[in-house]
Design a protein that fits this description.
With about 140 residues, the chain is α+β, with helices and mostly antiparallel strands. It has 4 helices and 7 strands, in the order E-H-E-E-E-E-H-H-E-E-H. A hairpin with a 5-residue loop joins strand 4 and strand 5. It is globular and about 45 Å long.
Length: about 140
């Protein structure tokens, strides 16, 4: 796990296969934060995507979309102009992936007020420093 994430206590994870229904597997909250997607091959895990949800206004308040992390993971667009609940299973079959593991962290709420995209950027920067590229499902940042 990335050290930037260890301080967040509102966190969990779930597994997902191409045969699963993402909306029933996803246990994320409606809070704001980041999520990391790992490809699982047996016991090995490889980070393939980092995402976030939640915007902070200049007065320090949070503008969150209805549904927060749950909605961003399940209905956010990726690979096509359609929600991940449709595009992830298709992409996983195309890439012959067995399973994904999604870890999510609320970064803005309670005693923590850390901008989700800031945390996303930190994790992506660390990945870039280590591997020389972004995770394969992150198109740009």
């Amino acid at each position: 796990m990335y050290k930037e994430l260890t301080k967040y206590k509102s966190t969990n994870h779930f597994s997902f296969t191409p045969e699963d229904q993402l909306e029933s597997q996803c246990n994320a909250t409606e809070g704001s934060g980041v999520f990391l997607v790992y490809e699982c091959k047996g016991e090995e895990k490889q980070l393939i995507m980092v995402g976030s949800t939640g915007t902070v206004h200049n007065d320090g308040t949070l503008k969150s979309k209805n549904g927060g992390l749950y909605d961003k993971i399940v209905n956010g667009h990726q690979f096509a102009k359609t929600g991940r609940k449709y595009s992830w299973p298709s992409q996983m079959k195309l890439e012959k992936m067995e399973a994904l593991e999604v870890h999510w962290f609320e970064t803005f709420g309670g005693k923590h007020k850390v901008i989700p995209t800031y945390v996303e950027g930190q994790i992506l920067q660390n990945y870039l420093n280590e591997f020389g590229s972004l995770p394969k499902w992150n198109v740009a940042f």
